[in-house]
Specification:
The structure holds two protein chains of two kinds. Chain A is α+β, with helices and mostly antiparallel strands. Chain A is built from four helices and five strands. Chain B is mainly beta. In chain B, a hairpin with a 6-residue loop joins strand 5 and strand 6. The chains are: A alpha+beta, B mainly beta. Chains A and B meet through helix 1, helix 3 and strand 3 of A and helix 1, strand 4, strand 6 and strand 7 of B.
C-alpha cells in the first residue's frame, strides 16, 4: 500500500503543478505573426544568453522554442544531438531556467515550426511556442 | 495474486503515467555500470526511439556466486511533460542466459522539476535455484542549486529500499552528479555497502 500511495503521489503532483502555472499555452498551432508561433504563450528570451550564443556570428536567425519537459540537463542532451545532425544548424543552446531551446540557423534557412516540432516530439518533449530573432 | 504482483501489473499496464533515464534519445546508446553488495553489472542499451530501449547486461551475482547475462528491454509506458516538470513510468524485462526459468520484470518511475525529484523502482527477479528477489525502492531528492546547461548538476537524495535478502527497509543518503553525457550516483549503507551507478551516453 505504501508503494501505491507513492505512485498516486507521483502521478498527482504534475497535475497540481500544471494548475499552479500561469501562462502555459494550450495549443501550438496559432500562427498570428511571421516570427511568433503561438502568441498566447509568451517567449521570454534571456538576452545575455542570446548575445553569447550569437557572438561573432552575422547573417543568422535564431529560433527560440519554448519546450515542455525540458527540466534537466541530461534530458536536453538528446535535443542537442538531434538538432546538430541538421547541417543548417550552426549552433544551439538550452535555457533550462526558462525552458527554452535556442537554435542558430543560417539566415537563408526557412525555419518551420512544424519541422522543429517533429524533432522535439521525437525526443519525447513538447514544443509549445516559437519566436524567430534575426541577428 | 499478491499485492505486489498486482501493483506491478497496474504499473506495467498504465494506470496513470511516469518515466526515468533507462531510455536514451532516438539513435542514442548508453553504457551503465552498477555496483552494490548484491551484484556488479555492466549494461549497454540502444534506443531506436524515446519510447523503448534494448540492451545486454553482464551480471556478476555475488549472492548466488554466478556470472550471466540478461537481454533487456525497457518501455516508456507514459510520460507527462509540463513547463516545469516531467514525469515518467517505465516497465522493464530481462531474459537470462541461464535459461528460460531465469528472468526479471519490473517498473520504475520518476517525477522531477529542476529542484525536486521523486522516484520509485520495483523489480522481481526469478531464478532457477529458488532464490528469488523482489527489490523495492523509493528515492526523494533535492537540488541544492540550479545549474545552467553544461554545468555540473548535483542532487542530494535519500533512498528507502528493501530486497528479499534483507530483513528490513534500509534508508540511506545518495549523491547524484551529472555533467554533459556523464552521470554518477553513489550511496552507502551498512546493508548495501557502496551503492554505485555510473552512466555515459553516446
Amino acid at each position: 500500500m505504501r508503494l501505491l500511495f507513492i505512485y498516486l503521489l507521483i502521478i498527482s503532483v504534475p497535475t497540481f503543478a500544471d494548475s499552479c502555472h500561469t501562462g502555459e499555452a494550450h495549443g501550438d498551432h496559432a500562427h498570428s505573426s511571421d516570427n511568433h508561433v503561438n502568441e498566447s504563450h509568451p517567449i521570454v528570451v534571456d538576452d545575455q544568453k542570446l548575445r553569447t550564443l550569437t557572438k561573432g556570428k552575422q547573417n543568422v536567425k535564431v529560433a527560440v522554442v519554448s519546450v515542455k519537459g525540458m527540466v534537466c540537463d541530461f534530458c536536453a542532451r538528446g535535443l542537442e544531438k538531434t538538432f546538430k545532425k541538421d547541417s543548417s544548424v550552426i549552433t544551439l543552446d538550452v535555457d533550462l531556467k526558462k525552458g527554452m531551446l535556442l537554435i542558430v540557423y543560417n539566415k537563408n534557412k526557412e525555419i518551420l515550426f512544424s519541422e522543429i516540432k517533429k524533432k522535439i516530439i521525437a525526443n519525447g518533449q513538447e514544443p509549445i511556442a516559437m519566436e524567430i530573432r534575426e541577428i | 495474486m499478491g499485492i505486489f504482483k498486482l501493483l506491478l501489473l497496474l504499473f506495467a499496464f498504465g494506470i496513470g503515467s511516469a518515466m526515468a533515464r533507462p531510455i536514451s534519445y532516438p539513435g542514442g546508446g548508453t553504457l551503465m555500470y552498477k555496483h552494490n553488495a548484491a551484484s556488479e553489472t555492466l549494461f549497454y542499451h540502444y534506443s531506436p526511439s524515446f519510447k523503448y530501449s534494448l540492451g545486454i547486461e553482464g551480471v556478476q551475482d555475488k549472492r548466488r556466486e554466478k556470472n550471466y547475462c540478461y537481454l533487456r528491454g525497457t518501455y516508456l509506458v507514459d510520460r507527462k511533460n509540463t513547463v516545469s516538470s516531467q514525469r515518467n513510468l517505465y516497465t522493464q524485462v530481462g531474459l537470462s542466459s541461464n535459461g528460460a526459468e531465469e528472468y526479471f520484470y519490473g517498473a520504475h518511475g520518476d517525477w522531477e522539476t529542476r529542484k525536486y525529484f521523486m522516484g520509485f523502482a520495483l523489480k522481481k527477479t526469478q531464478t532457477n535455484d529458488q532464490i528469488n528477489d523482489f527489490y523495492r525502492a523509493i528515492t526523494l531528492g533535492v537540488a541544492p542549486y540550479l545549474g545552467d546547461y553544461g554545468d555540473i548538476h548535483t542532487w542530494l537524495m535519500v533512498k528507502h529500499m528493501r530486497d528479499s535478502y534483507g530483513s528490513e527497509w534500509e534508508t540511506f543518503p545518495v549523491i547524484r552528479l551529472f555533467k554533459g553525457n556523464f552521470f554518477f550516483e553513489a550511496g552507502y549503507s551498512d546493508y548495501t555497502r557502496l551503492d554505485l551507478h555510473v552512466m555515459y551516453r553516446f
